[in-house]
Amino acid sequence: MAYKSILTVLTNPGDAELAISSAARLARSQDAHLDVLVLGVDRTQVGYSYIGSGAVLMQVGIDRAEADARAMEAAAKAALAEESDDLRYSVEAVVTQLGALTDLVASRARFSDLVVLPRPYGPGVGPESEAIIEAALFEGKVPVLVLPAKGLGANALPKRIVVAWNQSGEALTATRLALPLLKGADAVNITVIDPPTQGEERSDPGGMLCQMLVRHGVHAEVSVLARSLPLISDVLARHIWDQNADMLVMGAYGHSRFREAILGGATRNMLEKAEVPVLMAH
Length: 282
Hints:
With 282 residues, the chain is α/β, with parallel strands linked by helices. The chain has 2 domains: 5-147, HUPs (Rossmann fold), CATH 3.40.50.620; 160-281, HUPs (Rossmann fold). The protein has 10 helices and 10 strands. It has a 10-stranded mixed beta sheet, with helices on both faces.
């Protein structure tokens, strides 16, 4: 099993080099094809306006989106020109309205094995970045690798991976879909925080997952941690540092997206704070 179709979606020219260089390294390591989708997003929200001005506003929004798409396409092609000739890739530039973004991204993502995206939070990042991740996860049904500011780091493939395990279906799905990376790692640490006192894993937290991974040839071990900090994401971040890990695998959005957006949650917190790439699936 390997990733043979890798997709990256870009809406900000400043992210082109980071996303493409990281996705290209993964594509070469997996002998995969890289698809680059660049988007010009029309963010115009026409509510009320004077007679005749609505059409003008819409045209201005479309013109701006087309200019953004051309700039993104140029930045993407410049980044791809820096890659070696053995990279197989394609570039598609599309103009879309914000409301149609989900269907567009999902239609491309569902035929990919992995989607590689820059972090959706930070200065200058628009609402479309989070919408792209959610479209890939929920409608595209594909794992998403979210990059920190430093990208993949020194290694083309992660050597030390932390798997956040809470017995949820989301965590199991993420672990299964991460197998091409887990099998190539030197060490995989299954991390269980405050394991339940009842249920199948009460006497051996993470044991069944560890057994499954070992049978796939993964060098896996289990760490059981107490919730010593207020947020699960803080415990995970510290453990990633302690393990000198270069990737985190976790299930995404155990609660509803609306609840996580309003109240926060482990998914959002990890994406905001993680200093290593985070592979998520739902």
